[in-house]
Amino acid sequence: MPIVIWRLMLLVLLCLPGIGQAVADLEANTPAITRLKQSMQQRHSQLESYYNSGAVGLTRDGLIMLRDANAVPLAARQTVNQLVTAENQDRNALYREIARANSHPEWESNIRATFSQRWISLAKPGWWYQQADGSWRRK
């Protein structure tokens, strides 16, 4: 009888959220993911100076935003806004595609949270990122 109880307890533990769940493969690779990564990599060279100046920052939800419009010359603001919009579209699609590649679309928010932390940890000194409470901090 004790073996049956242990098996039942194990089954209950495996069904609890966060316990016994598979780990997402964040390095999943599909043609769609490859295209998104290439697009983001090409755009990064255009965004890097805006990260460096503090005009653009990394948000707490895995996106980017124009955080200081005054750090961008008026003539360049439309271009920066377009870059930010395109980057965020690709980031949202990337999170969605990685969740799909793992056969768990419901994991998208967890994948987004993981990538948000990853982007911040990879940020260069001087770049701005949003903390959990919404405030901005310079790395």
Folded structure, characterized:
With 139 residues, the chain is α+β, with helices and mostly antiparallel strands. It has helices at 2-15, 31-53, 77-101, 108-122; strands at residues 56-58, 64-66, 128-130, 136-138. The protein has four helices and four strands, in the order ααββααββ. Strands 2-1-3-4 form a four-stranded mixed sheet. Strand 3 and strand 4 form a beta hairpin. The N and C termini lie far apart (57 Å).
Terminal Cα separation, in Å? 57 Å
Report the order of strands and helices.
HHEEHHEE
Q: Output the strand order for the largest sheet.
A: 2-1-3-4
- Main pleated-sheet profile: 4 strands, mixed
Question: How many strands appear in the DSSP assignment?
Answer: 4
Stretches where pLDDT is under 50 for at least 5 consecutive residues are 1-20
Our Rg estimate from Cα atoms comes to 19 Å
Write the layout of secondary structure elements.
Elements: H1 2-15, H2 31-53, E1 56-58, E2 64-66, H3 77-101, H4 108-122, E3 128-130, E4 136-138
Helix pairs in contact: 2-3, 3-4
Short description:
The chain is α+β, with helices and mostly antiparallel strands and 139 residues long.
List the defining traits of the structure above:
single chain, 139 residues, alpha+beta, 4-stranded mixed β-sheet, 4 helices, 4 strands, globular, disordered N terminus
